[in-house]
Design a protein that fits this description.
Blueprint lengths: L2 E8 L3 H12 L6 E5 L4 E8 L2 E8 L5 H9 L2 E8 L3 H10 L10 E3 L3 E6 L9 E6 L6
The structure holds zinc ion.
Length: 138
């Protein structure tokens, strides 16, 4: 893992939170808003210097974010790490005994291949692996 790619924050109302985080970072708004239909979520992204924050809102009654907020409320949801080769990293973590939430990388928001590590196998922290999708592969 090379660096923190972004921190994901679960929110109830993406529009309201976009306004809030725009004030916090003193910017016009998120640089990207994207719906990931397969995951039932809407996301927005903010840059703050070299760092990136992702806001995530559920769009269904039974999506992972809505369930998370019902259980624990809004707040930090996951930490994403940038990896050079997501398949190699998934194989390595699996061999180390971590539980992955999918066997194959999935197409996530902001042009990334992603895979999540179950929080139960990482001290309660939901870890996301992210690999930038190469321009030629999209
Ligand atoms: Zn994320």
């Amino acid at each position: 893992m090379r660096k923190i790619e972004h921190i994901g924050i679960a929110v109830k109302d993406l529009d309201e939170s976009n306004t809030l985080f725009s004030s916090l970072f003193n910017v016009e708004g998120p640089y990207k808003i994207e719906e990931v239909e397969s995951e039932g979520v809407k996301t927005s992204f903010f840059k703050n210097g070299p760092n990136k924050i992702e806001l995530v809102q559920g769009t269904k009654e039974d999506d992972a974010i809505t369930k998370y907020i019902t259980k624990r409320g809004e707040g930090i949801h996951h930490i994403a790490f940038d990896v050079a080769d997501i398949r190699a990293e998934m194989a390595r973590l699996k061999a180390e005994g971590f539980t992955l939430l999918s066997d194959e990388p999935k197409k996530g928001a902001d042009n990334k291949w992603v895979c999540f590590v179950h929080p139960k196998s990482a001290n309660g922290v939901l870890i996301e692996l992210c690999q930038e999708i190469a321009a030629s592969a999209t």
